[in-house]
Amino acid sequence: MDKIAFKKQILETAKARQLEIVTDFKVRIDDINGVEYITDEDQHDLDQMSANQSNKTLIAMLTKEWEFAKNELDFLNKMVVADSPLDSAVIGAVVVTDHKTFYPSVSVESFNVGDKAIFGISKNAPLFKEMEGKQVGDTFSFNDYDYLIMEVF
Prior knowledge:
The chain has helices at about 5-35, 45-80, 125-130; strands spanning about 95, 100-105, 110-115, 115-120, 140, 145-150. By secondary structure, it is α+β, with helices and mostly antiparallel strands. Strand 1 and strand 2 (about 100-105) form a beta hairpin. Helix 1 packs antiparallel against helix 2. The radius of gyration is 21 Å and the shape is elongated. The N and C termini lie close together (about 10 Å).
């Protein structure tokens, strides 16, 4: 396996997955914005105002998540895969442990590249703080799990 080519596949897959997340948030926001409440004569204006306020609150929450997801996508789009493998757990490295394979970059749900499950973690995640700077053979602990780093590239 060409590790650099594999890492490029990981980055491209992470970008595609993050773009899906951004798009999903936008579709949900647009759907809610498009909902019109039609009142019949018996319906009170108060019901209308309550429904509209609930939608505004939901849209505000989704917009915040959408903007966060867009910022994460921007971060991924700025990442570059180096021509040589990395030797410690840093942003952009692939960190293979005895439990999971991590890709320190942004928080992306587990995704597959070929037959390999990859778990994207944010640079701000407590898990990354535990593994940061560690090398092959080092261990770290998080949430009652001990991890042995088997490979970094």
